[in-house]
């Protein structure tokens, strides 16, 4: 398999999932602004949507959209990264993935645009903070979103928390559950490895 990624983008989530799954993969770096691959090829010929992540399967099939990619990775790994299909817990995981993509990702993403006015950024930040407050309550007494077990939803939420705190400088100091959760996920060896490979952490 081959993962098309941009350092620190939402493609970090499937990158973590691949490492957690123990599946072999290659990385292809994408310049999202130029829509070019490292070798200069046109990324839009790979994904006309112009976005990462893209997972190229060994069959040649391309899969896009992060929440779908991480489920595919987990299902192929046969590990506990997702609950069994058709179980009540699987639908709860889907609920979390949808919440993260629609309520966090889509509110945080626009804030990276230099063209966005300050009042518009404040609007999106206020909306995102409301979602983080919900998560602060939901994570009380839990190690991960689904309880004691790390799942692919946690890699996605961690990526959004990285965006919020490290890049957008959100102050989440009044959300101890969320900050403890972020630190817990960040300490996982697979997360450290993914961030190192993407140049977000210096190699030890």
**CATH hierarchy, class of the largest domain:** Mainly Alpha
Query: Main sheet?
Result: 5 strands, mixed
Helix content: 40-55%
Amino- and carboxy-terminal Cα gap: 27 Å
For the biggest β-sheet, the strand order reads 3-2-1-4-5
Structural class: alpha+beta
The low-pLDDT segments are none
Q: Categorize the overall geometry.
A: globular
Describe this structure in words.
Strand 2 (26-31) and strand 3 form a beta hairpin. The protein folds into 2 domains: 2-80 and 190-197, Glutaredoxin (3-Layer(aba) Sandwich), CATH 3.40.30; 88-188, Glutathione S-transferase Yfyf (Class Pi), Chain A, domain 2 (Up-down Bundle), CATH 1.20.1050.10. A 5-stranded mixed β-sheet has the order 3-2-1-4-5, covered by helices on one side. It has 204 residues and is of the alpha+beta class. Helix 1 packs antiparallel against helix 5 and helix 1 crosses helix 7 (189-197). The chain has 7 helices and 5 strands, in the order E-H-E-E-E-E-H-H-H-H-H-H. This is Glutathione S-transferase. Residues 86-204 form the GST C-terminal domain. Residues 1-81 form the GST N-terminal domain. Keywords: Transferase.
């Amino acid at each position: 398999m081959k993962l098309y990624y941009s350092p620190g983008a939402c493609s970090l989530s499937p990158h973590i999932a691949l490492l957690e799954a123990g599946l072999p993969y290659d990385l292809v770096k994408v310049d999202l602004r130029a829509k070019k691959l490292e070798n200069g090829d046109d990324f839009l010929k790979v994904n006309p949507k112009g976005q990462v992540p893209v997972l190229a399967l060994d069959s040649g099939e391309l899969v896009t959209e992060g929440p779908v990619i991480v489920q595919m990775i987990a299902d192929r790994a046969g590990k506990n990264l997702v609950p069994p299909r058709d179980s009540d817990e699987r639908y709860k995981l889907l609920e979390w993935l949808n919440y993260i993509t629609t309520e966090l990702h889509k509110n945080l993403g626009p804030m990276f645009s230099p063209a966005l006015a300050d009042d518009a950024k404040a609007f999106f930040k206020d909306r995102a903070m409301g979602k983080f407050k919900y998560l602060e309550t939901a994570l009380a007494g839990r190690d991960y979103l689904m309880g004691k077990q790390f799942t692919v939803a946690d890699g996605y939420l961690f990526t959004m928390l990285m965006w919020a705190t490290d890049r957008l400088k959100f102050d989440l100091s009044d959300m101890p559950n969320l900050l403890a959760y972020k630190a817990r996920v960040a300490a996982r060896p697979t997360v450290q490895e993914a961030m190192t490979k993407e140049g977000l952490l210096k190699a030890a």
